[in-house]
Amino acid sequence: MEGKYLLKNVLLEVGFEYANDDVVKTKTDLFCVEIEHGKITNIMPNQPTADAVDAQGNLMLPAFKDMHAHLDKMLFGLPWQAVSATRKSVKDMIAYEQKMIPTWLQTSVERTEMMIDFLQSYGTDFARSHFNVDPTSGFESLKNLELALSNKQQTFGSELVAFPQHGIFYTDTLPLLKEVAQMDIDFIGGVDPYTLDGSVEKGMDVITQLAVDNDKGIDIHLHEMGDSGMQTIDFLIARTLENPQLKGRSFVSHAFALSRLDEREITLVAERLAEAEVGIVSSVPFGDIIMPIPTLRKHGVQVLIGNDNIQDHWNTFGSGSMLQKAKLIAELYGYSTEWQLSRVLAFATYNVLPLDDNGDQQWPKVGDDASVVFVAATCSAEAVSRISSVKSLIHKGTVVF
């Protein structure tokens, strides 16, 4: 469905209910919502008898955004394959990819579209996707990814990160990265510069200079712990402060080194990340890696969340559900009250919430993009806590299902 249409029986959050200054309930009401040319054009009192599409009392929320994906090389759509115990290092994985990428590319367009369908089934209408740039892939990963995204452009949005998965110098990737930096992409990526390329400064200097020269953002994978991990983060902070055009456009994905800092150390780093407007993108790992997400956010660091792996040779635990990721955050950090759970929804929606911290309605507004998801829940807190089922998704006015 496109063009102009009306939705009725749309459940929206309108405020908080308090008892002794504590939020004990989220207040909601039913509305009619008019959509035209991809925008919300009117929000009216509910008209149950109106000739309109019936939302059936489901809760309308901002559509979900997956901010760390690898849509170009998922094994989704191929026979089930668990992670191999014989491939233990990043270099082991590179060797395996060099062997398998030519085969994977043969069906990557169709399987990327299947993965997008899968993400949409969980209410996601946008992803930041990395794509391999390496001597084995050449530009084929990008070409196939762009074709799949073009086929889905009416119902799915994206931004793209050039990802030198096989190292910039470990394999002869630099000439390819220089060329792709001039293409219509959004970010220059990188991965573990010390481990793969033997030097934090050499790899990071290339990445940051390419971003500055080509007006791109930066989003690097950093799995390294200890000194090399922190040196990489410090380098990106310093270079971003030197080049203000990178502020708000520079990110460290994973940043596992932060999980090993004590509270005093992470506070100091968080303050510097916030000053440089360098964000952290996390897949919310657990086990012995618990990221200091509450401290980062307390000090104003932008923290984005993504599924990362869903079914691939690195990991198979990604559910595809951004609500599930939000719930995991709530469980890991003890966010259990009505107010806290309602705030955790921001991790799934790229920081868009129906109510502000004081309970004032701030979404939806007339003029907003009509990118919304309907869930079987009575409020945001319940949607997060219960990982409520997704009933419908609309992307910029186009009904996906």
Automatic annotation (TrEMBL):
InterPro entries noted in UniProt: Amidohydro_3 (IPR013108), Metal-dep_hydrolase_composite (IPR011059), Metal_Hydrolase (IPR032466), Metallo-hydrolase_Enzymes (IPR052349)
Residues annotated as domain Amidohydrolase: 214-400
Gene3D superfamilies tied to this protein: Metal-dependent hydrolases, Urease, subunit C, domain 1
One Pfam family matching this protein: Amidohydro_3
Protein name, as recorded: Amidohydrolase
Organism the protein comes from: Sphingobacterium populi
